[in-house]
TrEMBL record:
PANTHER family: HOMO-OLIGOMERIC FLAVIN CONTAINING CYS DECARBOXYLASE FAMILY, PHOSPHOPANTOTHENOYLCYSTEINE DECARBOXYLASE. The keyword Ion transport does not apply. It catalyses: (R)-4'-phosphopantothenate + L-cysteine + CTP = N-[(R)-4-phosphopantothenoyl]-L-cysteine + CMP + diphosphate + H(+); N-[(R)-4-phosphopantothenoyl]-L-cysteine + H(+) = (R)-4'-phosphopantetheine + CO2. It comes from the Bacteria. GO terms for biological process: coenzyme A biosynthetic process; pantothenate catabolic process. The gene is coaBC. Keywords: Decarboxylase, Flavoprotein, FMN, Ligase, Lyase, Magnesium, Metal-binding, Multifunctional enzyme. Catalyzes two steps in the biosynthesis of coenzyme A. In the first step cysteine is conjugated to 4'-phosphopantothenate to form 4-phosphopantothenoylcysteine, in the latter compound is decarboxylated to form 4'-phosphopantotheine. Signal peptide: none annotated. This is Coenzyme A biosynthesis bifunctional protein CoaBC. Residues 22-194 form the Flavoprotein domain. Pathway: Cofactor biosynthesis; coenzyme A biosynthesis; CoA from (R)-pantothenate: step 2/5; Cofactor biosynthesis; coenzyme A biosynthesis; CoA from (R)-pantothenate: step 3/5. One of its GO terms (cellular component) is phosphopantothenoylcysteine decarboxylase complex. Residues 1-205 are annotated as: Phosphopantothenoylcysteine decarboxylase.
């Protein structure tokens, strides 16, 4: 299984034709990152791709059509209403031509128009008319990216199956720092190579648990935790994109089911345990990302518990829940390659390695959940992955990017 990272493997002077014959429609919208599209086009072509460039009117303010024509070696398409362009390759023909539509940079405006299904310029019309897979490389100010409207639009496009490539975090042209930078041309090239290349997890079945569990106290109250499910869902989404058949066993979260993922909704640790034990033996890999409650109330009241005047205290007796990942790892027949997570606030390596041993796991992914902005209910995380003979740190990144690196590591270890 090939290692997964978004650094292009093609660094030697004889450039491998990893994209030979692939037809890429590069849609450029009006952001400062548009200037990088000349380099992007050149690098795609060097690897054998044919690139047809389409620009929005605003994109022309950042890079000239003449430049893009020179690097792509093809006339650049600019307008829906250009009789000459329509006569050479009409917009429907262009939409059908592409093996991949790559929108880079994709501004907040383009993303919003795509979400609304608008066809008010050539590029948005082509997206509507194309059957090809679509990759979106967002690029915008970090605050615009964080805006709930943009996040909502990005989520809606992902749900429709569009691939979100980036953005990256860092210094922005406007001076801000944060998520919103377009991925670098070579990172986009590597993602194209990955997209067209062999799927490293093809034919592998992976079961993943995600989100929190809820342990009922009475019909209206429960004990739970802050897990949003984002980390587990990112792993499920990425694994499916890498060709795996994915079963996602999810606690109660408000996230959309990733494309090509079979989802099983559960509530309590006991119901998650039951679903995991039912499905794990038919999967080759089991990833336990859920934040499972270690204990549950020993009794669930039939009726809502009433506040009383005779005491200011209330005691709930708790009993231990089954340890799901340890139960899966203890399977004597059809035991999958089993990976746990460890949410720690101190002495991370010692506790994580302790869980690796005690639960008989093949790998464990430790996150320091005491770090603000990482771990529970955040978009970013950092992991330190341990296995019996080694370990690797995965630096802070958004959960989607981290999932990609983690699955690359799992694929490598699973082979051994
Ligand atoms: O969901 P997010 O908001 O994106 O947050 C992600 C996360 C912080 C929840 C995730 O990265 C993470 O760390 N998940 C594991 C949380 C946890 O419960 O850790 P733990 O150290 O308490 O448990 C160790 C392992 O045992 C975990 O794999 C856990 O899934 C598993 N476990 C724990 C208890 C139990 N009864 N059954 C289990 O299977």
């Amino acid at each position: 299984m090939s290692q997964l990272n978004i650094t292009s493997p093609t660094t030697s002077s004889a450039i491998a034709q990893t994209l030979a014959g692939k037809k890429i429609l590069l849609g450029i919208s009006g952001g400062i990152a548009a200037y990088k599209c000349a380099d992007l086009t050149r690098r795609l072509i060097e690897r054998g791709a044919q690139v047809q460039v389409v620009m929005t009117p605003a994109a022309k303010e950042f890079i000239t059509p003449l430049t893009m024509q020179a690097v792509s070696g093809k006339p650049v398409s600019l307008s829906l209403l250009d009789p000459a362009a329509e006569a050479s390759m009409g917009h429907i023909e262009l939409a059908k031509w592409a093996d991949l539509v790559l929108l880079a940079p994709a501004t907040a405006d383009l993303i919003a128009r795509l979400r609304a299904g608008m066809g008010n310029d050539l590029l948005s019309t082509l997206v509507l008319a194309s059957n090809a897979p679509i990759a979106v490389a967002p690029a915008m100010n970090q605050q615009m990216h964080a805006n709930v409207a943009t996040q909502d639009n990005i989520q809606a496009l992902s749900l429709r199956g569009m691939m979100m490539w980036g953005p990256a975090a860092g210094q922005q042209a406007c001076g801000d720092v944060g998520y919103g930078r377009m991925l670098e041309p070579m990172q986009l090239v590597a993602l194209c190579e990955q997209f067209f290349g062999p799927k490293p997890l093809a034919g592998i079945r992976i079961a993943i648990t995600a989100g929190p569990t809820r342990e009922a106290i009475d019909p209206v109250r429960y004990i739970s935790n802050h897990s949003s499910g984002k980390m587990g869902f990112a792993i499920a989404d990425t694994a499916a994109q890498m060709g795996a058949q994915v079963t996602l066993i999810s606690g109660p979260v408000s996230l959309a089911t990733p494309k090509n993922v079979e989802r099983i909704d559960v509530d309590s640790a006991q119901s998650m345990h039951q679903a995991a034990m039912q499905h794990a033996p038919t999967h080759q890999i089991f990833i336990s990302c859920a934040a499972v409650a270690d204990y549950r109330p020993s009794q669930v009241a039939d009726q809502k518990i009433k506040k009383t005047d005779d005491s200011d205290q209330m005691t709930i007796t708790m009993v231990k829940n089954p340890d799901i990942v340890a139960s899966v790892a203890a399977l004597t027949q059809d035991r999958p390659f089993t990976i746990g997570f460890a949410a720690e606030t101190q002495d991370v390596e010692r506790y994580a390695r302790g869980k690796l041993d005690k639960k008989n796991l093949d790998m464990i992914c430790a996150n320091d959940v005491s770090v603000q902005g990482l771990g529970f209910n955040s978009d970013d995380n950092a992991l330190h992955v341990y296995w019996p003979e080694g370990d690797q740190a995965l630096a802070i990144a958004n959960k989607q990017q981290l999932a990609q690196q983690l699955l690359g590591l799992i694929a490598e270890q699973y082979k051994h």
